[in-house]
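Purpose: get a first structural picture of the assembly so the mutagenesis plan has something to point at.
Setup: two entries, given in the order below. No constraints added.
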Amino acid sequence: MAIDWGPRASAGWIKPAIFVLCLVPFARLVVGAFMRTLGANPIEAITHSTGTWTLSFLLITLGVTPLRKLAGWNWLLRLRRMLGLYAFFYAVLHFLTYIWLDQFFDFAAIVKDVIKRPFITVGFTSFLLLLPLAATSTAAMVKRLGAKNWLALHRLVYAVAVGGVVHYWWLVKKDITQPAIYAAVLVVLLGLRLLFRARERAVAAMSGNPARSRAV
Amino acid sequence: MLIKRATDIQPSEITDRGVYLQRRAFIRAAGLAVLSASAAGALYTNRSARAGEKVFAGVSKSPFSTTEEPTSYKDATNYNNYYEFGTDKDSPARYAGKLKIKPWTLMVEGEVKKPRIWAIEDLLKTMALQERIYRMRCVEGWSMVIPWVGFALGDLIRQAEPTGKAKFVEFVSVYQSDNMPGLRLPVLSYPYIEGLRLDEAMHPLSILAVGMYGEVLPKQNGAPIRLVVPWKYGFKGGKSIVRIRFVERMPQTAWMKASPSEYGFYSNVNPAVDHPRWSQAKERRIGEFMKRKTLMFNGYADQVAGLYAGMDLKKNF
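Result (structure tokens, whole complex):
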């Protein structure tokens, strides 16, 4: 039987398949922790892994709209919420790792860190900004807020992504190769949005309609 | 995009420990350096730099050693900073195998009456080797306990007879462009330079290490000879040293050049002086779950605090 790659695929097998795939990094950490294969400094390995996967899922989520527009795959939109929630899932794990495994609930030290260490301030702020996005991710919340307000609120994700990259950039000791890669991808994803917007404006101007910036 | 390499489970990592333990047991039982070399060589190939080529004999104990439990050999040789081989912790173990360490000469020069180019074999014949079990605190916030084999740096310095102009000692690490993939990264300037004040270098705790865990130094740990200054952050211990130069002016070290606001010349372990971007109050001892408090001068305050009497350690970080 041929695999269905068509528009209905997302409703069928693609979404559950991606759901499971997104859990693989988490599963590897759990297995690694039990098998003791996370290296000499497992807590650092967990911190780094959950952190980089948070950033990756943020960027993947931000990639949905450009890819949909460029490739014409409208069904991708149906994955966006799930991918965004996975970003949140890994962010929660990252945050818990810091609070629990790294600092072991030393709240005095944590408060000091958040206030004194710019990279933690930025990371913590980005995490806080993710909370309302996760909380309003349900269809009922979209309805309650109204599409316009909901879209406005969810533009926060741009700030979260920038904050996440800055958080990474500021924490590395000296070799900025990895954060620079994330930054470059983010610049491309945000740049594409500006391009789309400019093109839409141009089209609107030519057809005599007032420019309306399209959402996300 | 795929990101995390650190969590990759290599088949060799799963088997390494058992193989390693067997090998250690074998070495202890047999105590035969030559045999252990061939056994270790057969078991450790390719991926990790080869260790255990030779076991040191006639190494005396030292009262400077700590009684704390040494870090596992596997962790101490697979979780390293040696940026010439890359900035990931597992890069040195992965890539240091290519480092050429034979022949090796150590140049002692500058403001000394007796400059000399030592063949490492000759140097080892001259120096009395000791085991020094030291705490090692990395500036990144983790620590280990490592049983080094080495000799007092002061013994070498006395042989060289520094002139009155010698105020500082500069340590230059090896630069092998064909064998060190990390040299291409725009992170530090190479060759790696470290430095000490002459009195710090003369302090009996300062050693040049040629081995660890009773065996010759693995390449990822700085073979064949490296500096160990246990009351300073780990990066002060230059690896694979080829040149020791006595100078009048304070040397500019690799990390000072890379980030002068974050890394000073002294870089003494000090829980009260934070790194500008992170706290130095605590550390995670590799192999332990809970963090422990970092000790002043890494627990060597009784021996070394006098070197810095009257100095503002916040300014002279």
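Chain B has two domains: 12-47, 59-308.
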